[in-house]
């Protein structure tokens, strides 16, 4: 009899997955894998373990294995592990959905036409019941006009475009939600489309399946049920780690006919942290994990303070100092060595010092996604062009500065170097003059505004100015004059872009031009802080941004008073300080998701990022109530709770 070890305890789950990936008898599966269980490793090993005959057969018939990951970074890692073998089509969910529908122009046009007519009819019905002269009335009129114009122009579109990782503008561009809806529609309604998918993919594997958008996941489940035995749909994930509300809440209950292997181990965290995670989810689904025998111990502490009157900076510094004392780990007093997690990005932006840049650009629907993940093209002018150039100049690195210019400046391309502009100095001379003017800003005003930097870049044509930024330039700037000419010719296009009031954005939110105008007032130094944050090089993160990651030291900050989106989560509700509101209680009575469920999941995700030690800093109007909850529910021992006294000192519970 073979001894079971921590390393082999979950081997049966991996073997089940390999058996499901059979061309002769494909079987769908749902792998339950809690935090730190090696879910992604199981996926990689399943792909690497496919036998030569299977891969040869797939190549012979031009078939592929679809592997859908949650992030581009995960996709890159899996691609590397399978040595970029083209038989594996590794993509994010939006990229995969687009790959299914790209080029189906007539079908897309037909769906859009039907969808737009339905939306217009619904708005008209609401409009007939509404009152004139209100903001809602004006917004409905604008939406009807915008959608009617788009409907009229559908016939002009030769091919639809889409950028999975960016913002999509223009009359031929599809939006993220439309691509997901289109793929879901064709998967369930088009027999021809279904046959194409079946011929292309014997296996579709989805990592972090609990966060896959509900319409597409439901369509995939319906598709699989209709063609069971011809395709394997492999789902990997943990419903307790569902971050976004658009995921399928009852996914684990919808896969009853699937094989359901489960992983028991948590290879990431020490035992005390695993025990806390088990306590958090005990009242949810009851699933429990095991810690590795070679990872005993670990430290967890809760630091409680009143919401009002507490110096948060001082209290959090105290918490770090106390963690250093308790753990004997001096790295707890090094901010760069601690991962601090907040519930919302704006809280991280405030603590990192780039709020003036973050706040305006995180609101408009057509900007926020790209801005928050670092892919917004107009923002990349600052992060990937100007910032590297300024940094190289400050470091005296002429080689690096020239590399930045060669990569992005039209002045330093071959044509610019040879001829210059209009018989003036060569492009190289013009580039030198532009760089000198740019660096003068940082000499005269050590931290100029982004608007000042943009004006110099545009005036000297150092880099191309994205269309979104051109309306923000001074009227006498050459790039602004160029834009005026373009606008005169492309006025209908900008009507479709709806730059004045982004569609589905409340009138109180800034327009795209207003958002950029406000953001450009931010000091340029905030660009570097923003870039460090979106590239996960800062000590701060959010619940959403760290899923799948791990850190030796984690501090979770729960501060309901400073939470902007109140419906997202409420720690005071979870811990019994506040009851569910009437609307939330009605949802609970109807079996719908509540704030308590969402907050519990977010807490689980953040706590399970910690490998060695974890500090929870909780601000509340009733710290004593939270303390009693934690101790009575056996989440924490009495000596693991530290509470701020009325006189501002701190003490153990």
UniProtKB/TrEMBL annotation:
InterPro entries for this protein: DNA_helicase_UvrD/REP (IPR000212), P-loop_NTPase (IPR027417), UvrD-like_ATP-bd (IPR014016)
Instruction: Supply the Gene3D superfamilies for this chain.
Output: P-loop containing nucleotide triphosphate hydrolases
Where ATP is bound, by residue?
Answer: 33-40
Family matches, as Pfam families: AAA_19 (PF13245)
Keywords (A to Z) from UniProt: ATP-binding, Helicase, Hydrolase, Nucleotide-binding
PROSITE patterns named in the record: UVRD_HELICASE_ATP_BIND
Start and end residues of each UvrD-like helicase ATP-binding domain: 12-283
Query: Entry's PANTHER family?
Result: ATP-DEPENDENT DNA HELICASE SRS2, UVRD / RECB / PCRA DNA HELICASE FAMILY MEMBER
Q: What is this protein called?
A: DNA 3'-5' helicase II
């Amino acid at each position: 009899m073979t001894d079971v070890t921590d390393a082999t305890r979950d081997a049966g789950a991996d073997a089940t997955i390999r058996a499901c990936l059979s061309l002769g008898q494909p079987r769908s599966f749902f792998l339950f894998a809690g935090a730190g269980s090696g879910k992604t490793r199981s996926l990689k090993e399943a792909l690497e373990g496919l036998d030569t005959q299977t891969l040869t057969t797939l190549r012979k018939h031009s078939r592929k294995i679809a592997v859908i990951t949650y992030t581009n970074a995960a996709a890159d890692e899996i691609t590397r592990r399978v040595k970029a073998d083209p038989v594996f089509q590794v993509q994010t969910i939006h990229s995969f959905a687009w790959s299914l529908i790209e080029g189906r122009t007539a079908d897309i046009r037909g769906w859009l036409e039907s969808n737009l007519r339905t939306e217009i009819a619904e708005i008209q019905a609401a409009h007939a019941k509404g009152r004139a002269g209100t903001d809602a009335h004006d917004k409905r009129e604008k939406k009807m006009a915008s959608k009617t114009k788009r409907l009229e122009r559908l016939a002009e579109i030769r091919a639809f475009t889409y950028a999975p990782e960016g913002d999509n503008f223009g009359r031929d561009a599809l939006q993220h939600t439309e691509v997901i809806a289109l793929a879901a529609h064709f998967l369930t309604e088009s027999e021809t489309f279904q046959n194409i998918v079946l011929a292309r993919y014997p296996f579709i594997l989805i990592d972090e399946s609990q966060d896959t958008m509900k319409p597409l996941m439901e369509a995939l489940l319906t598709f699989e049920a209709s063609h069971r035995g011809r395709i394997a749909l492999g789902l990997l994930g943990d419903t307790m780690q569902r971050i976004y509300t658009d995921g399928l809440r009852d996914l684990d209950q919808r896969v009853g006919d699937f094989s359901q292997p489960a992983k028991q181990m948590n290879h990431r965290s020490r035992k005390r942290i695993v025990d806390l995670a088990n306590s958090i989810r005990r009242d949810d689904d009851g699933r429990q994990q095991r810690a590795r025998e070679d990872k005993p111990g670990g430290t967890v502490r809760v630091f409680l303070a009143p919401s009002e009157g507490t110096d948060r900076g001082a209290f959090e510094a105290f918490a770090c100092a106390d963690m250093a004392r308790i753990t004997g780990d001096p790295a707890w007093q090094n901010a760069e060595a601690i991962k601090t997690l907040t519930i919302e990005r704006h809280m991280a932006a405030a603590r990192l010092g780039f709020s003036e840049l973050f706040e305006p650009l995180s609101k408009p629907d057509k900007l926020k996604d790209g801005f928050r993940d670092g892919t917004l093209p107009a923002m990349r002018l600052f992060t990937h062009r100007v910032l590297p150039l300024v940094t190289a100049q400050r470091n005296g690195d002429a080689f690096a500065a020239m590399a930045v210019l060669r990569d992005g400046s039209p002045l330093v391309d071959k044509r610019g170097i040879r001829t210059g502009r209009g018989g003036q100095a060569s492009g190289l001379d013009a580039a030198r003059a532009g760089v000198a003017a740019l660096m003068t800003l940082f000499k005269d005003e050590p931290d100029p505004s982004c608007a000042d930097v943009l004006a110099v870049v545009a005036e000297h044509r150092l880099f191309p100015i994205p269309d979104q930024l051109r309306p923000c330039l001074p009227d006498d700037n050459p790039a602004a004059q160029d834009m005026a000419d373009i606008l005169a010719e492309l006025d209908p296009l900008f009507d479709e872009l709806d730059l004045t009031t982004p569609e589905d954005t409340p009138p109180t939110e800034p327009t795209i031009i207003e958002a950029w105008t406000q953001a450009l007032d931010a000091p340029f130094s905030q660009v570097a802080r923003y870039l460090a944050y979106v590239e996960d090089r800062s000590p701060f993160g959010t619940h959403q941004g760290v899923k799948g990651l791990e850190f030796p030291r984690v501090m979770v900050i729960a501060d309901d008073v400073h939470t902007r989106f109140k419906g997202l989560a409420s720690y005071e509700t979870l811990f019994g300080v506040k009851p569910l509101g009437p609307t939330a209680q009605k949802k609970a009575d109807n079996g719908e998701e509540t704030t308590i469920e969402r907050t519990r999941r977010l807490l689980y995700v953040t706590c399970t990022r910690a490998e060695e030690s974890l500090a929870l800093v909780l601000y509340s109007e009733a710290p004593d109530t939270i303390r009693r909850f934690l101790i009575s529910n056996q989440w924490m021992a009495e000596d693991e709770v530290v509470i701020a006294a009325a006189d501002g000192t701190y003490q153990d519970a």
